[in-house]
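#onboarding

Welcome to the new folks! Below is a worked example of what a typical request in this channel looks like: someone posts a single protein sequence, and someone else replies with the predicted structure as tokens. Don't worry about understanding the tokens yet, we'll cover that in week two.

Example request:
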Amino acid sequence: MVTVRAPVTVTLCDLAGNCASDTSEPFLEVDQVPPAIVFEAPSSPAIFGIGQTVNLGVQLDREVGDAALTLQLGGATFIPTYEHYTGAAGTPYGYRYSMVLPGGFTEGSYAIALVAGTDAFGNQLASSAAPIVGPSLTLKSVPPVLTSSFPRGQTGYAFRDVVEAGIDAPQMYSFVSQSAGVVDDLSTGTLAVCLNPSLPTCVGATTSASSGGLTVSIKPRTNVKVGQIDLTVAAGATGGEQYVQAQFTDKAGNVGALQFKVIVDNSPKADDLTSTLEPYRVAGAMPAIAGAVFQGKKLLGIGSSGIRKVGDPTPVTNADEWHLGSDTKAMTATLMGIYIDRNIFHFENTIADMFAGETIDPGYRDVTVEDLMHHLGGAPANIPGDIWNDMYANPYDPAERMKAVRAILARPPEQPRGTYTYSNAGYMILGAAMERALGASWEQMLQSEIWNQLHMGSCVFGPPGTPGLVEEPCGHQTNADDSLSPWDPGAIPGDNPPSLGPANSAACSLTDWGKFAALHLAALRGEASTIISNATMQRLHTPYPGGEYAAGWQVVSRSWAGGTALTHTGSNTFWYVTIWMAPAKNLTFLVATNAASSQVGGNIDAAFGPLIDRYAP
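Example response:
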């Protein structure tokens, strides 16, 4: 601000044109006010090195000549671009500055300084000798954002683990949409893969690379904007950690890279259970069957037989993904348990607490989180028909879940609080409560807090696979004559509406599902976890008084298990899966199929017999 002291001269003239002047005292102080410069917190962490636009957090709320400023970032001087904006009352216009970050920067924090610029009247705003310094901009190196088309319209990059000879290739890196700089068409860009130990700079486009028994292949996929990375580890590969580096160039020429770790485990090969499972597939007229047995986290046996889709000969594999149906409920309860540990929620929170301001029937107001987990909250056994139809009418609208929950809570409960009635709606209410409190979708929270933490890289929401392809098992509808018709993964109603997700929508490979089971099995044995406390897990595993149900599990006693066993079955009427855990013997058993006809349930149950005889005699 510049202060100018100037005398005030007053000139008076009469009607005849006679004028006289007088200089008055005191002097008038006039402030020449340059445009107000506002440094907000810039986008942080910002993207660096791949041509994305970075919001600098610099704003001017008054007219500035041609709006050109010179800023300094980390010693480099540049002229940013700007856009007009409408300010608050008294600041009807202004400019907001951003820049496309040039190369040459490394990760770190850089102060932003205004070093040159004038207002519309020629007043200088700053100089290199007297810069105006703002907050620091934090630059973080990330690869170009990658997108792929999943059945539920998710964004992310799919790392499909290929497990052979007891080798686990976990996903170690997750992509999140961060800017418009998307690698959206590899057919006009390049993708190359390099392997350790030297991690050389990748040059040119390749379709596969191998080193030390580890093969990385890039599969261009129809209807998917980027390829799929498959990791296959050959028998006899060198054990230990290996690193894979992939370099991407998008169609604009922007380059980014990612590196992820592969742990090669040379433990003895898991038993092949295919021949054990096949008779039950035949007896149940199932398209396919798959099963696995774990001791803690260790895979003891795995097998699969049959085809992915009726009318197509493509066989299932041990790496295929299976829709878990209601076995998703244990994941939702575990997610809630994580937030209970953080004091965001409590088991005693009521619906009135969690949905304050909503229209809630008095019968629901005192229902607690724990009531909903144990199916004691009065929620309907079946979603009312009109609400169900609305959930299908706009299946991919993120607002549909909350809309359905509002409609349910506005009506009286179907039974009094404390009456056990198995209810998908109760878990949908839990999911909506978390969304309301945390401002993220249930899908995002489950992915971030559980799947990513446990390296469950195969897991998706809804039927696995890509529409139009047979890259994963398809679910099958049971017709009136008990024949089966396959459903494409992108078809409606080949699954429940996504809004029901917290009760019924996860799909995972058996090896990844086993990682989630191992989390619970360890807690049942008193072993600590890094993502949830044992005290919370113990409460999740405790049935309501006089009952067997506990937050996504049936808790029963079985002699073969040495006492307590936990089990649950899941089905969306197109798939059927069952899990059994025996804490005393540190064992988990999983069996899955891609149909749910009248013959399936009994034969899936029977398939556990020889597995239990073999591993839990």
